[in-house]
Amino acid sequence: MEKKTETKKTIFSGIQPSGNLNIGNYIGAISQWVSMQEKYNCIFSVVDYHAITVKQNPEELKQHILEITKIYLAAGIDPEKSVIFQQSAISAHTELAWILNCYGARIADLNKMTQFKDKAGKNQESVSVGLYDYPVLMAADILLYDTELVPVGEDQKQHVELARDIAKRFNNDYGNIFTIPQAVIRKEGARIMSLLEPSKKMSKSDSNQNNCIALLDTPEAARKKIMRAVTDSGTDIEYDLENKPALSNLLTIYAQLGNREIPRLVKDYRGKGYGEFKKDLADVVVKFLTEFQTKYNKISDKEVQKILANNQKIVEAIANKKLTEVKRAIGIS
């Protein structure tokens, strides 16, 4: 990673190693990270402590950590330009999270978190404390690195706002310790929706995997999913989020993976039916997955393990410096 300069802002973001990463994760987050590498100091994490807020199979979790790192690399995250690391390898994350639980976070803050309500559903009294408290760990992830910009999906914006609030409260009491972060949400493709239920986000943990296209799906499986995707009433190919949410979602996928502009797609498909449109979209998705998976399959576990081990040392130095500063401020170091 290049040495930080005054002209480069720092970015931090991460993805949990659970479920199957899909094209929504790629379009909404990872592709955005790739384009940011030249302009910013980028730190990207495999946030495995966040994954264990829900019980995981140990062997599957180990494999998913390697898998997510390979996906970062295959997508274009360059280890010469960006730092990729495993969250649990850096103890400062959980240490700072505990301090922030005591100095800055409020029960009232966490009670407002819509992600917890969505994930816990009617079982709010029986889920893990970690699922309730993980926004504070996310705040620690961000604040440890003097992060200025946090590229996230729309559904994570609330958590970045919490990190901002915690940082401001801490700074108000103890001086200018934390940089105040800002969420960065891409304008187009920030929220890719389910193929069968366009009212909800495409999710890597969806029990029905026909709702999403995983980055490691076989190209033919992906083609079938596109052809089975729901459309809206009528026959015109139009981008209209209110009246044609399913078609608008498919147009967004086409534009992002096919490097096309939505208005141009609408013009090109004027007078053509949904069947032809979906067939062409399936071709675009298959081409993208084939090229992506070719890169993915060339990356070995050994290569991934070496990158994570090397970056642990880089990240540990940064994180421990900030943690020491925080400890001194509150009088425990």
Question: Helix and strand layout, with pairings?
Answer:
Elements: E1 10-15, H1 23-36, E2 41-46, H2 48-51, H3 58-75, E3 82-86, H4 92-102, H5 107-111, H6 114-120, H7 129-143, E4 149-151, H8 157-174, E5 182-184, H9 219-228, H10 245-258, H11 262-268, H12 274-297, H13 301-330
Parallel strand pairs: 1-2, 2-3, 4-5
Descriptive terms for the model:
single chain; 333 residues; mainly alpha; Rossmann fold; 2 domains; three-stranded parallel β-sheet; globular
Average pLDDT, rounded to a whole number, is 93
Annotated CATH topology of the largest domain: Rossmann fold
Q: Based on CA inertia axes, which overall geometry fits? A: globular
Name of the CATH class of the largest domain:
Alpha Beta
Count of extended strands: 5
Q: Kindly report the spatial arrangement of strands forming the biggest sheet.
A: 1-2-3
Please report the distance between the alpha carbons of the first and last residues: 30 Å
Q: How many discrete domains?
A: 2
Report the CATH superfamily of the largest domain.
Answer: HUPs
Major pleated sheet: 3 strands, parallel
Structural class: mainly alpha
β-sheet strand percentage: 5-15%
| Unreliable residue runs | 1-5
Describe this structure in words.
The protein is mainly alpha-helical. The protein has two domains: 206 residues, 3-Layer(aba) Sandwich (Rossmann fold), CATH 3.40.50.620; 88 residues, Tyrosyl-Transfer RNA Synthetase (Orthogonal Bundle). Helix content is 53%, strand content 7%. The protein has 13 helices and five strands. The strands form two sheets. The protein has a three-stranded parallel sheet. The longest helix has 30 residues. It is globular.
